[in-house]
Amino acid sequence: DTKQLLRCITKGFFPNAAYLHYSGVYKTIRGNQDLYIHPHSCLYTLKQPQ
Questions:
Q1: Burial of 27 (C-beta count, 10 Å sphere; 0-12/13-18/19+)
Q2: For the chain, which residues make up each domain, given as ranges?
Q3: Name one Pfam family in it (predicted).
Q4: Which of 19, 20, 31, 44 is the most core-located residue (most Cβ within 10 A)?
């Protein structure tokens, strides 16, 4: 069932979800912990969204 599969995937990814805080740091949705993009990540050189 596709619906169950999507729920399972979403439930597994949610603990890793983050938002861009106004201070310029990414923070986890759960726990509000600071996150930083690793320098070797392909996202590291991209500008942060405004």
A1: middle
A2: 1-50
A3: OB_NTP_bind
A4: 20
